[in-house]
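User: Sequence in, structure out. Go.
Assistant: Echoing your sequence, followed by the structure tokens.
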Amino acid sequence: MTQKKSVHQVGLRLRCRRSDMASIKKRENGQWRARYRDSAGKEHAKHFDRKVDAQRWLDQVTAAVVRGDYVDPRAGKVTVATYATAWEAVQVSSEGTKRIVDNALRLHLLPELGAHPIAAVRPTMVQAFVKTLESKGLSPGSIRVIYHVTTQVFAAAVDDRVIAHSPCKKINLPKADDAEVVPPTLEQVAAMADVIGDRWRALVITLAGSGLRIAEMLGLQVADVDFLRRTIRVERQRSQVGQLVPVKSKSSRRTVPVGQVVIDALAAHLATFPSDGALFLDEIGEPLRYRRWRTLWEAAARTTGADFTAHGLRHFYASALIAGGASVKQVQERLGHASAVITLQTYSHLWPGDDDRTRDVMDAALGPLADSLRTAAASDG
């Protein structure tokens, strides 16, 4: 109560010192007109039947000015689409992040909430938006990404004093699917390589033998393959619109050692489909793009009955490394993960022998106790 009184008193003092800032006046029709000017000099007015209501409203506005969280009521009339589009245009981020933001806004947020004045969006509307995403069959992970972009838009609107509060509060999101990664078998990989066609066989083999992301693979140039040292240098990726852009992070920039099977497959590919630029060209000699690749993969998957995406070849690579005794650090570096935590979250269940190793360690630790128990049992006998 003391705090409220203090704010009220501050407001009164402000009005006393600056009578031109705010005032209440009775009109001929009996209503009370409360008005104030904001920091930009714009006048705002509202009419009330009772003077006490006019004073209460004016006190609330004055208190907001004092606290520094005043919001021009007209600012919130801008639509979500108008504000979000302007916000997106000034963001500084990587090509990958730009693509994620654009997809979230263009395909989801703007069609659902774009026409609403941004100040009119309520938490229930955001919750309904999330529910709509779920009804479309999007995965929990995809919904969380779209929701994250949504929260960024409304948080920026709060910072810009367009709205007083973000409606992205206490929103229930679908639980993430924590199912363990199941890598494809060697037989499944071989089947896809056989069915997808001679032009793309080396691409499947290289994905399975290098662990590259599909965007990184499509961004490879012939010069990135060192056939003598048997390495592939990853420095760029191809965006979904076909542009060559930097890889998504510092850890993604790496040199991956590959086996002779991959080297031989790539050598045979270039002998049949020569190129001095992009490693993989389509039928008309243009760099292979993601959309075309996806069509090729889905057609081959229907033929073989494969139930995994091309990203599954990355899982195959990781599982092969782990089965061969690679450490967490080695797998992290080969895959280009930002941290070992990501590697463990995805593949910890594939490291063999953890249960047996745990048993051996505990038996060694409790060995003296076991000896004393055996001695006690023998003396009792």
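User: And one key feature?
Assistant: The first helix runs from residue 2 to 17.
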